[in-house]
Known about the structure:
Layout lengths: L12 E7 L6 H11 L8 H6 L6 H11 L6 H16 L3 E8 L2 H4 L5 H19 L2 E9 L4 H13 L6 E5 L11 H9 L3 E6 L5 H9 L5 E4 L7 H9 L3 E4 L1 H6 L11 H6 L3 E4 L4 H4 L3 H12 L3 H14 L4 H16 L1
Parallel strand pairs: 1-2, 2-3, 3-4, 4-5, 5-6, 6-7, 7-8
Helix pairs in contact: 4-6, 7-8, 15-16
The chain binds adenine and zinc ion.
Amino acid sequence: MADAxxxxxxxxxxxxxxxxxxxxxxxLAFELAERNGVDLPYASVxxxxxxxxxxxxxxxxxxxxxxxxxxxxxxDFEALTSAYLxxxxxxxxxxxxxxxxxxxHTVRGVPLTAVVEGVRAGxxxxxxxxxITSTLIMxxxxxxxxxxxxxxxxxxxxxxxxxxxxxxxxxEVGHPPGLFEEVFARARAAGLHVVAHAGEEAGPEYVREAxxxxxxxxxxxxxxxxxDPALVERLVRERMPLTVCPFSNVRLRVVGExxxxxxxxxxxxxxxxxxxxxxPAYFGGYVGDNFRGLREALGLTDAQAETLARHxxxxxxxxxxxxxELHAEINAWAAG
Length: 336
Ligand SMILES: Nc1ncnc2[nH]cnc12
Ligand SMILES: [Zn+2]
């Protein structure tokens, strides 16, 4: 294939759309279930994996929330985070802005501090041992009461350093971004980064609302913007990053198959697209797998891969010095 020769796993990558709960591989789920005395309603790893045939976002979320039941204490969250970082490091991960869903755990009686302590321990170890940098983004479940999100954002604001930013995820249709205006206003006022899922299954109007009402710095997914040329023009003009997740879109039937995925057309249209894995344990691969999938299905060139990697660095919440280092690492890959 023309201009596609380099090792994509060696391309230094920043991942900007990664739910740590979505990295729970069936093997670890069973291990934690046993450790914590949690009964998983599946006989084996294979039987659990066989459930990974989703009709849409909601059918995925049902299983995703159910399997989080095995995560109980901070050691479980540390093991989960470290397992993700091991796998992603082998595919070139150098920085991650990592999402977690506190309400998926607090509703089961797991304290927020246990979740954050465990995830941070995994992130800190990866920084020391591998030089992988990170930020932590707390996502609100948009299909739960706004009052819960307000409580969480107030807790985050009261503990500076607990998290670096906030996001919005879960079942999208019927739960527009505007409902969370006050939550995001409080986060922004406290200097937290702000992102939101919008335009994954719901239409371009959700993307506009995320921009205009929530003031987001990036749009997670955002691919439904393609239904609105004026919105695409605006996103290009404003250089608004979109964290696109190709494998996820195929598995959740937002896109027919990978060969139909619009990510490279979006890139050519001038959109600041990035490639991410979303929930890699459920969707068939990690960030490097997504890049390699795009090469196989769409003929992603080395030059396009480099551009995608640079977009992710520029759109990341890594500091300016770290972003410069990451660009230098990409320069070395491109020159190699
Ligand atoms: N792709 C996705 N969309 C919305 N919420 C999610 N939570 C985990 N993955 C998600
Ligand atoms: Zn997501």
